[in-house]
Design brief:
It is built from 21 helices and 23 strands. The protein has 543 residues and is of the alpha/beta class. Helix 3 packs parallel to helix 6 and helix 6 crosses helix 7. It is globular. The two termini are 40 Å apart.
Length: 543
């Protein structure tokens, strides 16, 4: 490879922390559609010490991940620049908040000549359907613990509550502030000017160049000339091919290196999910099997729990938490929070020795909720008569559509209270704090990673590499001498998060159009009575 080459990576689709690469990926043209931050770090590690490499070009077509993942991506680019290498980001299709947030970490930003750049800021909208339900003769029965536990609020109220405005506003402040800071530092302007640039969006390419948001415009075939020197085009080499060649071994290792295992809790937490959500959920049975596998494998010396979940079933969360406590008694266990680790997602994290989160991670939401739709008034309006015979005072408490009497509501409320008390106790035990200290930061309140760190719910601000480093330190291992790999269940590989087939995606889009949370409907189909679930976090997890 000649001196002065540029490595390039094309990002177009999901960006994840860790993924399993197919053994024969050269036979699969889509095998690189998912970009792994682990692989990107490996490229940066090799390139930073290779004098032949001038810099790294990121061709960023689309970024399918949350702001915490975008922050981790930015941190990797900043690290490469600190080693003396150049970084250029090309946005051939333009981009929104996340794409430009990442791009601002580069030395130069280029855009497609006819593309639109839209770092417009952040918005959160919720449809409140109580008035529509009233007209239909349908009621929403919501029981919750925590003043900020807003799941079901859109069904039972006709406007946003003050606690909800407070916590959503705080989340938007953090995300907006992160974008402002990134633009100010990356484009070398004052924060006031960065805010003006956001308020002036969107920008066509020519206007973006004039405003100083980007350094130039070119098509992809013009990149060698744009990156060249002295009139000579630059030489571009695929980063993945470069990494494979750098890691090529003629002989296998004589001894296996110690392993830091990764257990992924990605998606809503459920006991058993309907087929509509297969591949998008964190099933307790599958994850428990992975936890037990990590305990049994002698090569796994420490474990990182990678959480990207808005919560779900309180029972499934508790089952996972119990198994993680057993694992933590035997091996170092560290949580790395990705974009979202809220409600049930925080519940499982509380079992670990150390919690790492990005400043833009959404976490907390320590609270529980139960919601049900009451359709009896609608049936009465339609002239439908329901005759019920029962034996036992609360025999009909779980009947769908039934109006609960005072005794039945008290019974359900008692169950909700018991789950909430257990949640508080589990977090207090895991964080080595008193119940009173956790009550202050609980109440269903959602926090950013930065705020959670300030309040003792998170131990360290950082990304996956920081979590691995702490796990190695606790296990007495040299981080440079370990391998990191996903731990699957003993019965097979952990299934990937496959995109839903078109009919399922259309159904979910239709549900969202009417302001309905399709995952809550899936949990209801599984007869989940009590949920450790955060609708705000769910919105950011599934963006």
């Amino acid at each position: 490879m000649p001196s002065g080459v540029w490595l390039y990576i094309e990002v177009d689709g999901p960006v994840v922390e860790l993924t399993r690469r197919p053994r024969f990926e050269f036979l699969n043209p889509n095998s690189r559609k998912t970009t792994s931050l682990e692989s990107l770090r490996a490229v940066v590690k090799e390139a930073s010490k290779d004098s032949r490499v001038r810099g790294l070009l990121i061709i960023l077509r689309g970024f399918s991940a949350g702001m915490a993942t975008a922050t981790a991506f930015r941190d990797i680019l900043v690290k490469l620049r600190a080693s003396g290498k150049e970084v250029v980001v090309h946005l051939p299709l333009g981009g929104g908040n996340k794409e430009f947030y990442v791009a601002c970490a580069a030395d130069r930003v280029l855009v497609g000549p006819q593309a639109t750049l839209a770092p417009v800021g952040f918005v959160s909208s919720t449809r409140y359907v109580k008035n529509a339900l009233d007209k239909l003769g349908v009621q929403a029965d919501v029981l919750a613990r925590g003043a900020y536990k807003s799941a079901g609020e859109s069904l039972s109220r006709d406007s946003m509550s003050e606690p909800q405005k407070e916590q959503v506003g705080a989340l938007l402040d953090e995300l907006y502030g992160s974008l402002v800071t990134a633009i100010a530092s990356g484009r070398k302007v004052e924060e006031a000017r960065a805010k003006e640039l956001i308020d002036g969006a969107p920008y066509r390419a020519s206007r973006a160049v004039e405003a100083g948001l980007v350094d130039g415009a070119c098509y992809e075939d013009g990149l060698p000339e744009a990156l060249g020197r002295d009139g000579s085009p630059a030489t571009l080499v695929g980063a993945w091919r470069y990494l494979d060649r750098r890691n090529l071994r003629l002989l296998p290792r004589v001894r296996r290196r110690p392993l830091v295992g990764v257990i992924r809790v990605h998606g809503p937490i459920v006991g058993e999910a309907p087929s509509l959500f297969a591949g998008r959920i964190a099933s307790d049975e599958r994850i428990i099997a992975s936890i037990r596998s990590a305990r049994m494998l002698r090569s796994v010396r420490a474990v990182v729990l990678h959480v990207d979940s808005p919560g779900g079933s309180a029972l499934a969360s508790d089952r996972m938490h119990h198994e993680l406590e057993q694992l933590a008694r035997e091996k170092p266990l560290v949580t790395c929070m990705a974009n979202v680790a809220a409600s049930g997602g925080y519940y499982v994290a509380a079992a670990t020795h150390h919690i790492v989160a990005q400043p833009t991670t959404i976490t907390g939401s320590i609270g529980v909720v139960a919601a049900r739709i009451v359709t009896d008034p609608l049936f009465h309006k339609l002239g439908i008569v329901t005759e019920t015979l029962q034996r036992g005072a609360h025999a009909g408490v779980m009947e769908p559509g039934k109006i609960l009497d005072a005794s039945e509501r008290e019974a359900l409320d008692r169950e909700i209270g018991g789950f909430y008390d257990s949640f508080i106790d589990i977090v207090a035990r895991g964080r080595n704090k008193t119940r009173e200290e956790i009550e202050v930061v609980a109440q269903g309140r959602v926090w950013t990673g930065r705020d959670a760190h300030a309040r003792g719910l998170v131990d360290e601000l950082g990304g996956f590499d920081a979590a691995v480093a702490f796990a190695c330190k606790r296990a007495g291992l040299d981080v440079a001498s370990v391998d990191v790999a996903v731990v699957g269940s003993p019965w097979g590989h952990v299934p990937p998060l496959n995109p839903a087939p078109a009919p399922q995606a259309i159904l979910r889009t239709g549900l969202r159009l009417f302001g309905l949370d399709e995952t809550l409907l899936a949990l209801a189909r599984g007869a989940e009575r009590v949920l450790a679930w955060s609708p705000i976090a769910a919105r950011f997890w599934d963006e």
